[in-house]
Structures are given as C-alpha cells and as structure tokens.
Design goal:
Length: 443
Amino acid sequence: MRIALIAMSGVRAHNPELTALGLSLPGFVERGKTIASLPSLGLLTLAALTDDRHDVAYFEVDDIAEMDPLPECDLAAFSTFTAQVKECYVLSDRFRAAGVTTVIGGLHVTAVPDEALAHCDIVVAGEGEPVWSRLLADVEAGTAEEIYRPDRPFDLSLAPIPRYDLLDPARYNRLTVQTQRGCPWRCEFCASSILLTPRYEMKPADKVAAEIKAMKSIWPDPFVELSDDNSFVNRHHARDLVAAIGSENVQWFTETDVSIADDPDLLAMMHDAGCREVLVGFESPNSAGLDGIETKRNWKLGRVDRYRAAVEAVQTHGIALNACFVLGLDGDGPDVFESVARFVEETDPFDVQITVLTPFPGTPLYARLLAEGRILEPGAWELCTLFDVNYRPVNMTVEALERGLVELGRHLYSQESTDRRRDGFKRQVAAGGASTLARAVSP
Ligand code: B12
C-alpha cells in the first residue's frame, strides 16, 4: 500500500490582539519560533513499525489549502491535536471523496472517537504502536474495524526507533525524542499523555541513546526536545537517562515537575549532560489558585511555599527554567496577573509561559465545566489553543481574563522584562559557579 502519514502541524491562536502581540514581542517571538516547527513523533514512530512492503511518505500540513493536489495514496493516516482537528476532518473528507481510506489518531480522537468517525473510516483511540500492524493488515484485507483501542499500555522497551530519515532536517530547529508517557499526578486540566496511558511508563535509557544516535545520522548536531510530560519521576531511571543522553553529546530541553529543584546532584548531572532548559508547570503562584488542581494528593498546593526557591535552585546549575502559569484557575481572582508578574520579577526564570485554562475534551476539567454549564461554545475545538478563552471563569469575567492575558503578555514579553530575566538568569548561574555556554541562553 502507499501510505501518506499526515501531521496536522503549526501553532494557533484566535485571539487577534494576542496574535498581533506575538508578532512583535521579543520573548514571545523567540519561543514561538523555537516550538513552531516540530515533527509528529507519533507518525515517525508508526512509520518505523510499518512493513517495508508498504511505501511511506510523511507530510506536515499547516494550511490545508496547500495540500492540493492530494498526494496519491491508498491510506491517509492523520495525526492531530484538538486545535486543528476540524481542519483535519475537512482534509480527511477530501481524501475519502477521492476514494482513499483514512485513519485518524492522536489525543483528540482518543477522547471523542465517535465524533471523528463522521469524517474518517478508522479511528485509533489511544497509543498507536499496539494496533498499527493489525490495522494495516485489516485495511489490506478489507476487514478494517471502525475503532482500534489498545487493551494494555504499550511497553516502551519495545519502542522502535522513529523514522527521522523521513524528515528534511533543514525544516527544524530541534527534534523530539520521548523517554516516558503518563504522569503520577492528575492535574484536572491535563490533556497530554495521561489521556493515552493510565500508568507512568519509562523507556530504557539505552533506547533513548539509540534514538538520539539515529537522529544524529540525519542531523549531526541536533538540539533535542524530550517530548515528555514529566521526565524525572523515577530518580533511578532519571540518572540512567541523563547519563545516556550525556553520552550522545547533545544539548536538550525537557518538561518535568518542580521536585527537580530538590535534587542538586541530578541537576548537576543534567547540566553536564547538556540539559539547557527545563519547563516546569507552576500553574499559579497563589495557594488558592493551586488548591484542588492536582486531584490525587493536591500535590502542587503542597509545593507552593518552595516555588520561589525552586527557580534559583535550578538556574544556579546553569539550566534555564521555563516557568509556566495557567491563568483563570477557579481559585484565582483578577489579582493573579499582578501575582504572576511579581513572581517573575522576584525570581527571574529565563523563560515564562502564560496560557489560559483550557477545557480539552477527555479531561476531568472538560467534564466538570460542561456539567456546570460553564463552557461557552461546546465543541469549538478550534479554541483549544491555550490562548483563547472558551469557559466562564469563577472570579472574573471572560473579558477580564482575555485582557489580563494580553496585558501580562505585553509586560512579560517586552524587551525590558525579557532582558531583565536573562540578566537575572546569568547572575544566578554565576552565583552557582556553573559554566554556561553562550548557546545555553538561547535554548
Ligand atoms: C511536539 C508538540 C507539538 C508540535 C506537534 C508536532 C506534531 N505535528 O505532532 C507542535 C509544536 C507543532 C505543537 C503544536 C501545538 N500544540 Co503541542 N505539543 C507537543 C508536545 C510537546 C509533544 C507531543 C509529542 O510529541 N508526543 C509524543 C507522541 C509519540 O505522542 P502522540 O502524538 O500522542 O502519538 C501517539 C498517540 O496519540 C497515537 N497517535 C498519534 N497520532 C496518530 C495517528 C495515527 C494514524 C495513529 C494510528 C496513532 C496516532 O500513537 C502515538 C504513539 O502511541 C505535547 C506536550 C507533551 N509533553 O506531550 C504538546 C501538546 C500535544 N500540544 C498541545 C497544544 C495545545 C498545541 C497547540 C494548540 C498550541 C498552539 N496554540 O498552537 C498546537 C496545535 C497544533 C495542532 N496540530 O493542532 C497540547 C494538546 C492537547 C490536545 N489534546 O489537543 C499538548 C498536550 C500540550 C499541553 N499543554 O497540553 N505541539
């Protein structure tokens, strides 16, 4: 079969003021450029599990109008998140009209498989690896089912090396490797890999090193982004992992939780192994905002007193910190904008990310807000960008949240504030005595 692997790609925001702002503010533009072009690791992984008998081609689609004419194929396999799912449906409809069988996978259709079936022949709900070969065989035999659902979490020690060779490295400024799936914490709003797997799954460290080696065969000096949700939950695995990545001599970025700040030995190892930045979800600087957002043990609330010290603990090791805040949490009021600005001024994280609370389908947050009648436009998936408000906050109006986001963004991503944070970072690194490379300050 000729299989077209199609990644719905690019970044999105509908809020026009924010989009205009993003085009002009230095801190925002820099971060946007860094993340705007990443390939679909899910599809590259499935390509690696595809028998050689099949011809595989990989496409990235930002603007569906540009996919004209459609590539010739027997099976079009789409990967999409929520924000672009409607564009994906339009494209899938076009392929079907041309007589091509279509399949859609990814986080969105995992949450609402029946919705997707109106626009494609097959949906994969959950991790793709356990079902992909069977699905291909069924399509060839004309016996494909409508929904494929793995019956157990995928064992990451069996993960294939993603087909990085399908990519043109000139298109990217970093490439991704995944070292784990799932997360022990249950943040109410999380729409990431906990929607795919209930368990925390780790990939053996030597496999991660082998994947980076494969990446280096197309791009000798890559910047590696770990597509993880929480890399270092298991500290034993974390040490093996960091040592393995270090042996590949690359620079890298990852996402983890704030407990990393309690482990100076691991931070020192990470710095020496090329880690340049970690992203940490602080969510809110206020106890009231944090109360209840991690639904299992209220873990984040229990950490808030150590948030400020955590920034310094990480950055004195020469590792930049991207502090992430979610605006519009139920416990936060209109003073949250000022609180975030103050937190950032007092701690100088190298990067800061502000987004609005977003009810993604499949999350406990979505179910709760829907039941409370607080979703403004149910099914307006195009607003699931993390920047567009599609729910009624508790302690402020929708307009106040939108205005607060834009104004805080204008302040935090201004040249002055960006320079301040970068200077603060350099001071913290100098105080910690870690040697930073010039490149460390432009992750
Ligand atoms: C890399 C990344 C991107 C890349 C995406 C590249 C791409 N085309 O895949 C870029 C930078 C383009 C991007 C953009 C955006 N992103 Co993003 N991104 C990520 C990130 C960091 C890693 C994703 C990843 O690589 N996962 C690893 C792979 C292996 O997993 P996977 O894609 O889920 O694939 C598995 C299964 O889902 C399934 N599968 C997936 N596709 C298919 C297809 C088929 C045919 C089959 C059979 C199976 C299958 O099998 C795979 C293997 O098991 C995550 C956060 C995180 N830490 O996970 C956020 C994340 C996915 N992004 C998110 C968001 C919100 C966005 C944006 C809306 C941001 C914006 N404002 O523009 C856009 C949306 C773009 C879009 N297409 O809709 C949310 C999505 C939530 C959701 N449910 O939709 C996440 C979870 C972050 C978050 N804060 O919540 N992003």
